[in-house]
Amino acid sequence: MKVYDWIVVGAGITGATLAYELAKTGFSVLLLDQNQTPQNATRYSYGGVAYWSGTTPITQQLCEDAIARYQILPQELDTDIQFRELDLLLTIPADTDPKLTATSYSHLNTQPHLLSIQEACELEPLLNKNAISGALTIKHGHIQPEKITQAYIQAFLRIGGEIQFDQVLELTPALMNEKVFRGVNTIKATFHSDKIAICTGGLSRKLLKSAGIPIKVYFSHAEIIEIPPVNLRLNTLIAPANLQRFQLEIESTKVDQLWDEFGNELVPPILDAGAVQFLDGSLRLGQITRILTDPHAQINSEESEKWLRTKIMNILPDLGNLSGNYHHCLVAFSKDKLPLIGAIPEFEHIYIFSGFTSPFVFVPPLAQRFAQFVSGQEDEIINQLVIRNY
């Protein structure tokens, strides 16, 4: 019977990166995922790397670490991950004071620059000048989400890691001790390990709860439209300056017990209208965010797509009617914007690595730090981020 040092459950950006870093550190690692063709939050993300957005000493250090990692990742992973720098354009609605909006970013070390309506439209000609009172802009990192994830997986396999595509049924406790976990049951087999890392994003809470492990990690239902490659060109990455998603997440976590009841919609849905174009010409338009406590909740895709297209038409008229496909996925988050990392209190051999608000910024440096930490090296940032108040 083979016993791995680590089983990493989930092969999105978090699981793929963590599995690679653990294997690079010298551990034997099995990476598990139910889908060979991903249908997760990584697959449908914008791919933004907001390395300018640190607001605390920890997040500022991680942003610096991220910049350094991205400079060497293409060579280390031996793949073009399409890392580049874009102008991020944060649109301010026509009925909103742009100077007041700008002050809401004053706590950042690197602050976006305020643009007039004319300046914003010169930077992004596809903007509807009548929909904005101005915009904020800053240089913003960007990668192709699927390419970087696959690059990590292929690099992981090259250094001896193993991957299995199979649905996880349950985490298996050690005999006679329900708080010690030493394996994972899938549809096809049972795999054994010394330690297990849960990197299943929006499904993390459900998977852990099924094993009797309570943890305050949450999820939203995110909805986007994906447009196949087009000749039309978007010069910038568009997002609203007044993002509603973060406040929605905070409101939804006030009563944790409500998350244990399927069927709850804890707060009304919001729509943060934005768009990004990848190097191949494809676009992603988004995003609607819903807080539904059932991870498998059914959503009316026709109504969602209509709502999303209407909002996009207002800000970027040329994009709203482009032919594309609606997609829906789960996005994990925590109650304080910081990821949940480390051993789960009161349980043995089970770890979590989830809840990343900005995964493409924080996952690469934190996965590297975490792998070194569990191999015996002290790390001040990991020490501060290990499971908080759970």
The SS-based structural class is alpha/beta
Percentage of residues in DSSP E strands: 25-35%
**Mind summarizing the main beta sheet?**
8 strands, mixed
Count of domains: 2
Question: What percentage of residues falls in helices of 4 or more residues?
Answer: 25-40%
Tally of helical runs: 10
Overall geometric form: globular
CATH fold name of the largest domain: FAD/NAD(P)-binding domain
Please report the total strand number as a whole number.
17
The CA-CA distance between the termini, in Å, is 34 Å
Give a quick rundown of the structure.
The chain has 390 residues and is of the alpha/beta class. The chain contains ten helices and 17 strands. The chain has helices at 13-25, 57-77, 98-103, 117-123, 145-158, 204-210, 245-252, 301-315, 359-374, 380-385, and strands at 3-9, 29-33, 48-49, 84-93, 113-115, 132-142, 162-165, 168-174, 177-186, 190-198, 218-227, 237-240, 265-277, 283-292, 325-333, 340-343, 350-354.
